[in-house]
Amino acid sequence: MTSFSKDNLTKLVGGFKAGLKHAFAVTREQDALSLDDLALLERVADAVIARGMAAPATVFLESAGPMNFLGSQALHFLTPILDLACKTSEIEHVARLLERRDAIPRLIALIEAKSALQGTSPR
Which domain holds residue 47? Predict the structure, then answer.
């Protein structure tokens, strides 16, 4: 039977605290976006601007932004079906990008900047 001395209890509590240190953290440290990620965001922003959909896209992205992780998981789930229309690597790239919290605000900023350069208002 294990004895509960002060040292053993201190080690046990210290290990417990270390294990829970980041258990409820909201944000985590992430690497910067790669060049491929930035290129994908640029392509999406260019496509939105070319179609004149800056305002609706901005509103949609801002309202659906908090659920981007759920969207990424849906993409992972639907990859076998979407593979008929797109490359699997592209679908997985978009899904990995949506898992990041900073991807949607970055895309919104790109759309707003590109629409401002063209003289149209995104809102």
Answer: 33-118
